[in-house]
Amino acid sequence: MSATVKSSPLGLTVLALLHHRPLHPYGIQRLLKQWGKEQVVNVGQRTGLYRTIERLQAGGLIAVRQTERDQQYPERTVYEVTEEGRAATREWLEQMLATPKAEFPVFPAALSNMLLLSPDEVAPILEKRAEQVAARRAALERQSTDAPPGLPRITLIENEYLLAVLDAEERWLQGVISDVRDGSLTWSPEMLATFQEASEPGAAET
Predict the structure, then answer these.
(1) For 105-133, how does the pLDDT look when each residue is reduced to its tens digit (9 = 90+)?
(2) Helix axes 9-20, 25-34, angle to 10 degrees
(3) Which alpha helices (DSSP H) does 3-69 contain, by range?
(4) Residue 124: which of 173, 192, 79, 78 has the closest Cα?
(5) Owning domain of residue 90
(6) 6-30 burial string, b = 16+ CB within 10 Å, else e?
(7) Rounded Cα–Cα distance for residues 145 and 10 (Å)
């Protein structure tokens, strides 16, 4: 059954939360934020969560446990993970842990087209990114520092990974910015045009 449902970070996380106890969508959303999962899955829009829940239910990975009625809230549907869902959770988790996925994030795509700007334009833009990376790293460090004493390391392992990635990106950015500022990394339309002409087939024969 899991083969009919495409794996996704949000789908995996919803299934993992339902391993702990049955939940309604609002409860899932609240736990996602309470446990800091918004750092690793896209939960910016509630509609995305509801679509994921519908997809998991249609695939038989979760099922309706009950419907709750309360005078203070609208009717809420409580979901639970099925046996097929438990098997899919393990399958997806093992696959995502073991196999690097060919992802296409925004930043490398922008870097590949950065030559459309001049070095003088690029430096302050990258400095702005470095500031934001540093701010995000500091926020994650505060989360780790504010964690309750004795909290098992495994509960914040994703923060540990994100901090390592952010630290590496910040150091790389500072190096590139320094190279652009001192001129050791530079380019111009003329330089690129010359390289293009030299690399065209038959250029060496002329």
Answers:
(1) 999 999 999 999 999 999 999 999 999 99
(2) 100
(3) 9-20, 25-34, 46-58
(4) 173
(5) 2-98
(6) ebbebbbbbbebbeeeebbbebbbe
(7) 26
Residue with the two structure tokens 């909290």: 151
DSSP annotation string for 88-105: HHHHHHHHHHHS------
Long-range contacts of 171-176 (CB under 8 A, 24+ apart): 173/126, 173/129, 173/130, 173/133, 174/130, 176/126
Indicate if 36 and 115 belong to the same structural domain. no
Rounded CA separation 147/139 (Å): 13
Express each pLDDT in 42-77 by its tens digit. Answer: 877 778 899 999 999 999 999 999 987 666 667 789
Taking the C-alpha atoms of residue 28 and residue 34, their distance in angstroms, rounded to an integer, is 10
Contact, 67 vs 75, CB < 8 A? yes
* 57's tokens: 């239910």
Domain boundary among 98, 126, 151: 98
DSSP secondary structure string for all residues of 130-145: HHHHHHHHHHHHHHHH
**Is 205 inside any structural domain?**
no
